[in-house]
Design brief:
Layout (H helix, E strand, L loop, with lengths): L1 H5 L4 H9 L5 H15 L4 H8 L4 H13 L2 H26 L8
Helix pairs in contact: 2-3, 3-4, 4-5, 5-6
Length: about 100
């Protein structure tokens, strides 16, 4: 989404594009609700908060991005943070399961 915003796509339109890449129906459904909230004039942070799917850190970073005018940059940082978190979580799971250690 950060790339779409950096390219100048409006937030509501970017949310519609992100839905197809969500990869998990819960997030795809949330994209519809988020897009509707954004179209009604809600901030991204408020819409994400109402979805109840995102951590307080993600919500705060979105708020800072909106307030500073650097939402695309902050969303890129959020994506990077989430990717690192998921990588560590996957490594932790593999370490706890000796049958999966060969995959490291």
């Amino acid at each position: 989404m950060s790339g779409l915003l950096a390219a100048g796509l409006p937030l509501v339109d970017a949310m519609a594009s992100v839905k197809g890449a969500a990869g998990f129906y819960v997030y795809a459904d949330a994209c519809d609700r988020l897009r509707d909230e954004l179209a009604r004039g809600s901030s991204l942070q408020a819409a994400l908060s109402a979805a109840d799917l995102f951590s307080p850190v993600v919500l705060q970073m979105c708020a800072v991005g909106e307030e500073s005018g650097a939402l695309d940059q902050l969303l890129a940082k959020v994506a990077q943070r989430q990717q690192v978190w998921h990588t560590f979580r996957d490594l932790e799971r593999r370490a706890k399961d000796p049958t999966r250690c060969h995959l490291l």
